[in-house]
From TrEMBL:
EC top class, as a word: transferase
Similarity-based family: Belongs to the GART family.
Keyword terms of this UniProt record: Purine biosynthesis, Transferase
Ranges that cross the membrane: none
EC annotation from Swiss-Prot or TrEMBL: 2.1.2.2
Entries under SUPFAM superfamilies matching the protein: Formyltransferase
Gene name per UniProt: purN
Pfam families in the cross-refs: Formyl_trans_N
NCBIfam families per UniProt: PurN (TIGR00639)
CDD domains: FMT_core_GART
UniProt name for this protein: Phosphoribosylglycinamide formyltransferase
Keyword Iron-sulfur in record: no
Pathway: Purine metabolism; IMP biosynthesis via de novo pathway; N(2)-formyl-N(1)-(5-phospho-D-ribosyl)glycinamide from N(1)-(5-phospho-D-ribosyl)glycinamide (10-formyl THF route): step 1/1
């Protein structure tokens, strides 16, 4: 079984979906730990599921914080680390320590709309479609190699919440597919 550490910053809805899929066997992996930069719903979800958790509160300098976070991740000996709603940038050195076994979900069809406000930015730009992507994390902001992505139409009546809800469904499926096929993709 593929050993996963998942990093979150918020409610953990993508984590909840991945946890369900790993537990019922649809995704052949085990979430061995969940980490965060703050106390959040994702940490509470993991605790309730009996999964090891850790919180490494963000602090400057970023490089020192990143080093501490990566040390916490590596304590759990993951074969893959998933950033799922993790809203902090890691230092380039930290990314290198986890690379290439570090992936990120993103609510846009990259390279379109990188960054923390992708859904809002797509609507503001008047785009007719956005999407979801899973990428290998590199030192840039949402610039790593794309592993999987799907287009999601933007409806005329969409607001940020409605579009993001539809994107999350696609994002969850993409992440499940990437994790399921991880060993074949990296060999």
């Amino acid at each position: 079984m593929l050993r996963l550490v998942v990093l979150v910053s918020g409610g953990g809805s993508n984590l909840a979906d991945l946890l369900e899929r790993t537990r019922d066997g649809r995704v052949p992996a085990t979430i061995v730990a969940v980490g965060a930069d703050q106390e959040c719903g994702g940490i509470e979800l993991a605790k309730a599921a009996g999964i090891a958790t850790f919180v490494e509160p963000f602090a400057h300098p970023r490089a020192d914080w990143s080093d501490r976070l990566v040390a916490r991740v590596l304590e759990h000996e993951p074969q893959l680390t998933v950033l799922s709603g993790f809203m902090r940038l890691l230092s380039a050195e930290a990314v290198d320590r986890l690379s290439p076994n570090l992936v990120n979900t993103h609510p846009a069809y990259l390279p379109e709309f990188p960054g923390a406000h992708a859904v809002r930015d797509a609507i503001a730009a008047g785009a007719t479609q956005s999407g979801a992507s899973v990428i290998v994390v590199d030192a840039g902001v949402d610039t790593g190699p794309v592993l999987a992505q799907v287009r999601v139409p933007i409806h005329p009546d969409d607001d940020e919440a409605s579009l993001h809800d539809r994107i999350k469904v696609v994002e969850r499926d993409l992440l499940a597919d990437v994790v399921t096929n991880w060993n074949e993709e990296t060999e």
